[in-house]
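--- STAGE predict ---
source: upstream dedup step, 1 unique chain passed
mode: sequence only
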Amino acid sequence: MKDFKDFMEALTLQQRRKRSIISKKKSKITAIKRARSMKKPPSQDKIDKAVNKAVRQKAITLVDKAGKYKDPEASIGVKTAIEKKADLKVQKMGGKWKKRLKPIIKKKMKDAFKMRQASAKEK
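--- STAGE serialize ---
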């Protein structure tokens, strides 16, 4: 499977320019869709995605005690090794962490939604 770098190298200058034009044309539509989704409460799917992301982040912070994962000068090999260890940690402890983090994240997302609603009423 191609990664992002290979994909971008495969595009010609003409293809990149065409993508740029398309994204500029669709930017207003995308902004409207984003604004609409912000008016809606968080769906169960979005909450689950946020929980999975939080679990993965927790695993990375536990595995990467030296803080090399966020270091911009770290090699790809070091980062992949950290990710493999984090994947193992998620397999072992992921269910327990999901159960503990879900109510916290759900509350955080609902509070953020309520704040957006309150700020929209003030305007």
